[in-house]
Specification:
By secondary structure, this protein is an alpha+beta fold. It is built from 14 helices and 18 strands.
């Protein structure tokens, strides 16, 4: 024993390195063990759904999964197969996995998709945006938009997961909770923005549109990876070397909020008896044709505004979802163009955490529809759900409660409880 202590003391550098290595290895193995326990518990919970008895005449529910293997720097496929796929297969669903090979493929695949009971998106913000765009571009979108959608967060940016699921620092737990939420069946209606250019087909978004200096600087953050935690501030600092102050000019026309209609019942009313239907048809046949009363068309009350801003954003209310509100609108935030370079750098870090935050001194507008006219020769890009599109004149229209997404039952209870208070 004394000899071993003497050897360790004489080689204290190697001893210190060995202890650190063993500690790190032990912590890594313990983390892997905890992840396996989480997967096992989730699979046992999913097995309970798979063991439920169904009538022999009832077919299995079909679930179509759109998986983006390139999400999360190419790790999405492994994350899905280890954490989400076993849960879906144990639940008794008839699962079809569609893997996308290139950007924009999901939009084309949605045009060819046949009937399905569930649509599951496995990826990040870009995958969500592609799938809902392909879905709502279909000729029969009125029918397909009623299909509930599940979201398994596998991408680098998963903005929608903050609304649908509780926060979790453990990635395995976050993915398994999201997958189990699909099986539990609780859904919430989400608003969608329809963004249409002059010639292009419309693009659809569940988060919003950004145009300005903060978005442009945020795109370049990854270029300064070698600066570690300072990369965000560096990207915004070097952005101030351009012409200052940075101003974006546009003309904005918008309509105010609209009253929310009552929600349609999910179950269709029962069909009346045959004699009642015959009586109604005969009454309509023998009745004199009604006189057409001309309806007065009320002109739309458009507001006009000239914009000079450092950044403009148009966002849905999905981040602060209120299931009981009586009006439908989107938030337009026009930030002041008089910003110092120091404020720009500090605020840029906040914008990376919450891209659609509206700082003090900004002009906030609630609108149901807007038209953004850009001066000729305007360069730059829009950020639509964190995807880059060429800046051009666009019309943005709110589609309230257009899609239903699966959510964690605890999150739905929190939304209802907050609304009551």
């Amino acid at each position: 024993m004394a000899r071993a202590v003497k050897v360790l003391r004489n080689h204290w550098k190697k001893t210190t390195f060995g202890v650190c290595l063993l500690s790190w290895g032990g912590h890594w193995l313990y983390g892997k063990h905890c992840d396996n326990l989480l997967r096992r518990a989730a699979c046992q919970e999913a097995q309970a759904f798979g063991d439920e008895l169904i009538p022999s005449s009832m077919p299995l529910k079909k679930a179509t999964v759109f998986l983006n293997p390139a999400a999360c720097k190419g790790k999405a496929r492994n994350l899905f197969e280890k954490n989400a796929a076993p849960i879906l297969h144990l639940s008794g669903l008839d699962v079809t996995v569609v893997k996308t090979d290139y950007e924009g493929q999901a939009k084309k695949l949605l045009e060819l998709m046949e009937n399905t009971d569930l649509i599951i998106i496995a990826g990040g913000d870009g995958t969500v945006q592609e799938v809902i765009t392909g879905l709502l571009r279909r000729a029969d979108e009125a029918v397909f938009s009623k299909i509930p959608i599940g979201f398994i967060p596998l991408g680098k940016t998963c903005t929608l997961s903050n609304t649908l699921y509780p926060e979790s620092t453990n990635q395995v737990q976050h993915i398994t909770n999201a997958t189990l939420s699909i099986l539990k069946g609780e859904t919430v209606p989400l608003d969608v923005l329809q963004i249409k250019g002059e010639k292009e087909q419309p693009v659809f978004a569940v988060t919003g549109l950004r145009w300005g200096s903060y978005r442009d600087a945020g795109v370049k953050v990854s270029k300064y990876w070698y600066l570690g935690p300072l990369k965000t501030k560096a990207a915004h600092f070097f952005s101030t070397f351009k012409e200052w102050p940075q101003k974006y000019q546009a003309a904005l026309m918008y309509l105010g909020p609209t009253e929310r209609p009552p929600e349609e019942p999910e179950e269709k009313p029962s069909r009346p008896p045959l004699y009642v239907r015959l009586y109604r048809r005969l009454r309509l046949y023998w009745a004199s044709p009604p006189k057409e009363i001309p309806q007065e068309v009320t002109p739309e009350d458009w507001e006009e505004l000239n914009v000079s801003t450092i950044e403009l954003s148009i966002a849905t209310r999905n981040r602060q979802l209120d299931l009981t509100r009586t009006e439908d609108f989107m938030d337009i935030c026009i930030e002041a163009d008089a910003v110092s370079k120091g404020q720009f750098v500090n605020r840029g870090s906040q914008k990376m955490r919450d891209p659609h935050m509206c700082p003090e001194g900004s002009q906030c507008i609630q609108a149901s529809r807007c038209i953004l006219q850009l001066p000729e020769g305007t360069e730059g890009s829009f950020g639509i759900d964190n995807e880059e599109y060429e800046a051009m004149p666009v019309e943005v229209k709110l589609l309230p409660r257009k899609l239903r997404f699966f959510c964690d039952p605890r999150m739905r209870e929190q939304m209802l409880h907050a609304a009551v208070q």
